[in-house]
Predict the structure.
Amino acid sequence: MTINTIIFDLGGVLIDWNPEYVFLDAFNGNHEQMRWFLDTVCTSDWNENQDAGYPLEQATNDLIAKFPKYKSYIKMFYGDWPKMLGGSISGTVDILKALINSNQYQVVALTNWSSETFPIAQQRFEFLNWFEGIVVSGEEKTRKPFKEIYQTCINRYHITPENAIFIDDNLRNVEAAKSLGIKGIHFKTPNQLRKELQRYNITI
């Protein structure tokens, strides 16, 4: 079937985001302490709960109650959140631009992102204005890999799943898209993405 829609994830595909940019300094360069903190206290699962719409202040207070010893570090997670944005992944931005300029595809984004922090990214990254639309998990009160958010994207932009490709750096999210009939690409590098797109006769 002909591909007419490309759906991009944002973090890890177009935008470099990493809490280590804050916490490596916070723990004075001690990788072991930093990894323990991010694996035990401010975990990815905890952060994903905010991506699904849970208030940042409440989430912070919840965690402080659980780990009072780490109060100052916990407050850094969203207090210093803008420092976790490392910049754009330029090779992927080039691919995005080429796809849009070709006028052959509807190009949208589907991202797990808190509605409270997403405006910071919108101000920083001009290319976020290029999309026909962006589905932000925090605004929808659900997140990938739950099927509801994919269905929201499908319905809002009148997407036929068999005619769409979804690009995400998280394999779990790619598999969820595939279960709904959307073709998936597990993103690793911009060059790898170009090659994967070529498999669908998309040359840019």
User: Anything to note?
Assistant: Residues 18-85 form one domain.
